[in-house]
Amino acid sequence: MNNKTVLLFDDDVNILEVCTIILEECGYTVAISETSHDIIEKVTAIRPDIILMDNWIPDIGGIKATQLLKQHPDFKHIPVIYVSANSDIHVLAQQAGADTYLEKPFNLDDLEGIVNQVLNNTGSNA
């Protein structure tokens, strides 16, 4: 078990369910949120090791939510994987200040791979 916690922000319940199942099978603890306006409260309560942020999430959207996180002195180190079906996802992720991105639709191997990759890159000094 790797006892890392993943926090998923997405307003699509089906995506949350599937991602939760896959990530829990990989040994992660998974927390979910269907809204993004309360990102700081959620992160304070959950203390995730990594965040997956959907672009089109109520109420303030993925970009603003990611920026709030990255501007927070206690939480700016938490890696954010930006998730969107937009063709300009790399621009959105950059604008948000996300660490990397995952284009929708993604397959489950991609999801598992990018989470493992980001955590392995950042986890060595934690």
Explain what you see.
- The chain is of the alpha/beta class and 126 residues long.
- The protein has one domain (5-120): Response regulator (Rossmann fold), CATH 3.40.50.2300.
- Helix content is 44%, strand content 19%.
- The chain has helices at residues 13-25, 39-46, 61-70, 89-96, 108-123, and strands at 5-9, 29-33, 50-54, 80-84, 100-103.
- A five-stranded parallel beta sheet has the order 2-1-3-4-5, sandwiched between helices.
- Helix 1 (13-25) links the parallel strand 1 (5-9) and strand 2.
- Helix 3 packs parallel to helix 4 (89-96).
- The longest helix has 16 residues, at 108-123.
Q: Compute the number of structural domains.
A: 1
Low-confidence runs of at least 5 consecutive residues: none
Strand order within the widest beta sheet: 2-1-3-4-5
- The helix count comes to 5
Biggest sheet record: 5 strands, parallel
What's the rounded overall pLDDT mean?
A: 93
What global shape is seen?
Answer: globular
Looking at the structure, the CATH topology is: Rossmann fold
How would you spell out the order of helices and strands?
Answer: EHEHEHEHEH
The total of beta strands comes to 5
- Amount of helix: 40-55%
Which range does the strand content fall in? 15-25%
CATH class descriptor name: Alpha Beta
| CATH homologous superfamily assignment | Response regulator
* End-to-end distance: 17 Å
Find the structural class using helix and strand composition.
alpha/beta
Radius of gyration: 13 Å
